[in-house]
Design goal:
The protein is elongated. By secondary structure, it is of the alpha/beta class. The two termini are 25 Å apart.
């Protein structure tokens, strides 16, 4: 992709747009969140975002009622990414307004995570029924469990009330379940207490971007219907790679991109699914070599994508896909 250098320089010849570029290089945020970070009105922010978008320095996409913005990525538009990074490195990020912008952006992201935790704490008792209403007759847990090698150590990230962990434990020698919602961990603990699976399940409360696992502790990592709830899915995938042994297996299940806005209200979804291209991009950036992605239609016009990937050795290519 060929950039227009004059248009790019004009796009960044404004302090507000420089601040936006600095924020979006580090975070994907919706327009409402950007207005909170910069303390400006939505129309003003939208006008500046359009200028940056027209110069192909950022991407803005509609997702239901939200517009999500991010800097051009280094896979689809490396020239724009390099231009942005080269320009913003000249900024003194240790002084206002850039330091203040980053602190406010982190506060917004922290509130995202806290809101998700509060939601799942509130619905912990009904979560299995909510999931069944969407998945219908599709046995997602069985599909995931059947891909786990016998006797493996499995990390179930975002384990919820432990239903999937129970299925995984039938094949694994150990399942490490991690969730950030205390009520989910409490219900999962009650599920296994006194059962024959109790010694094969270790439950740990923690954030998926700072996992309470040692480096290379697991041979299989499972992220089932988790990424669309996270403020920073790539950070979670990077952590998944850290705790996965060399050559280990990553299993990811998530909704394909959709426009069912009710999923935000009833299921706490932060994103309306993850399309194949974005999932491919994230996995490659996190250092995984993907094997395949399979679509599975479910209820409410939704489709679940089930992906398999292996932890790449350092320096290995992560671009070959079989879809």
């Amino acid at each position: 992709m060929v950039l227009d250098p004059l248009r790019c320089h004009k796009a960044l010849a404004d302090e507000t747009r420089l601040r936006l570029a600095h924020i979006l290089l580090a975070h994907e945020m919706n327009v409402g969140e950007l207005t909170a970070v910069l303390g400006m009105g939505q129309s003003r922010i939208s006008r500046h975002l359009k200028i940056l978008s027209d110069a192909e320095l950022i991407t803005c996409r509609r997702e239901g009622q939200w517009t999500l913005c991010a800097a051009a990525n280094d896979t689809e538009n490396p020239a724009a990414r390099t231009f942005l990074e080269g320009t913003t490195i000249l900024l003194n990020a240790n002084t206002e307004p850039y330091q203040g912008d980053e602190a406010r952006a982190q506060a917004v992201l922290s509130e995202r995570t806290a809101a998700t935790r509060r939601f799942f704490d509130a619905v912990a008792g009904d979560w299995e029924h909510l999931s069944a209403d969407v998945l219908g007759g599709f046995d997602l847990m069985g599909e995931l469990a059947n891909r786990v090698p016998e006797g493996a150590v499995v990390a179930d990230l975002g384990c919820g009330p432990g239903e999937l962990a129970a299925r995984l434990a039938e094949r694994a020698c150990l399942v490490i379940g991690v969730d950030n919602a205390p009520n989910m961990i409490e219900r999962a603990t009650a599920r296994f207490c006194g059962t024959e699976l109790e010694t094969r399940v270790s439950l740990r409360q923690g954030e998926l971007t700072q996992l309470p696992l040692r480096e290379e502790e697991a041979q299989v990592v499972v992220l089932s219907m988790v990424l669309h709830h996270l403020p920073d899915p790539l950070a979670a995938l990077n952590e998944a790679r850290r705790v996965l042994a060399p050559g280990g297996l990553l299993l990811v299940a998530d909704f394909d991109r959709h426009n069912n806005e009710t999923m935000r209200e009833h299921h706490g979804d932060m994103r309306l699914g993850v399309d194949r291209q974005t999932l491919i991009l994230w996995l490659g950036q996190a250092g995984f070599i993907p094997a395949r992605i399979q679509p599975h239609p479910v209820n409410q016009g939704l489709t679940v994508l089930l992906a398999e990937a292996a932890k790449a050795e350092r320096g290995a290519t992560t671009t070959s896909w079989r879809i």
